[in-house]
Amino acid sequence: MARARIFKPSKNAMQSGKAKTKKWVLEFEPSAARKVEPLMGWTSSPDTNTQVVLRFDTKEEAVAYATRKGIEFQVVETQSPKPLIKAYADNFKADRIGQWTH
C-alpha cells in the first residue's frame, strides 16, 4: 500500500524569496530501502513512487486526490514564521540594546 505525505514546503535556505512555497505537495514515502549498486556506486531503489511529486493549490485538493485514489496519507501542517517588523530608525535609538559603532 502506498503511503504519502501532504505538506507545504518550507523556504529553501539558499533563496531569499518564497518561490515554490505556496502550493501543497503530495510526496510518496519510500517503501523499500535504497541500495548502493556495486559496479558504479549509484544509489538505487526498486520503488519508483518516490520519484512522483504532485503539487496542488490547496490542502483540500491534495486530500481529495489521495482519498479518491485510495492512497494512505498523513497531513503535515506547517508553522508560518512570525513577521519581524523593524524600522531603520531603530538602529539609532538612544535606548538601543547593544553597541552602535561607526
Brief sketch in words of this structure:
The chain is α+β, with helices and mostly antiparallel strands and 102 residues long. 11% of the residues lie in helices and 23% in strands.
What does this structure look like?
The N and C termini lie far apart (63 Å). A 4-stranded mixed sheet has the order 5-2-1-6, covered by helices on one side. A two-stranded antiparallel ribbon has the order 3-4. It has one helix spanning 59-69; strands at 3-7, 24-28, 35-36, 43-44, 53-56, 72-76. Helix content is 11%, strand content 23%. A hairpin with a 6-residue loop joins strand 3 and strand 4.
Write a concise keyword list for the protein shown above:
single chain, 102 residues, alpha+beta, four-stranded mixed sheet, two-stranded antiparallel sheet, 1 helix, 6 strands, 23% strand
SSE string, helix = H, strand = E?
EEEEEHE
Q: Tell me the quaternary state.
A: single chain
Strand content: 15-25%
Count of beta strands: 6
Report the sheet with the most strands, covering strand number, pairing sense and barrel closure.
Answer: 4 strands, mixed
Number of helices: 1
Would you tell me the structural class of the helices and strands?
alpha+beta
Distance between the termini: 63 Å
Low-pLDDT windows of residues: none
Q: Give the overall silhouette.
A: elongated
- Helical content stands at 10-25%
What topology, given as strand order, has the largest sheet?
5-2-1-6
Mean pLDDT: 87
Return Rg in Å.
Answer: 22 Å
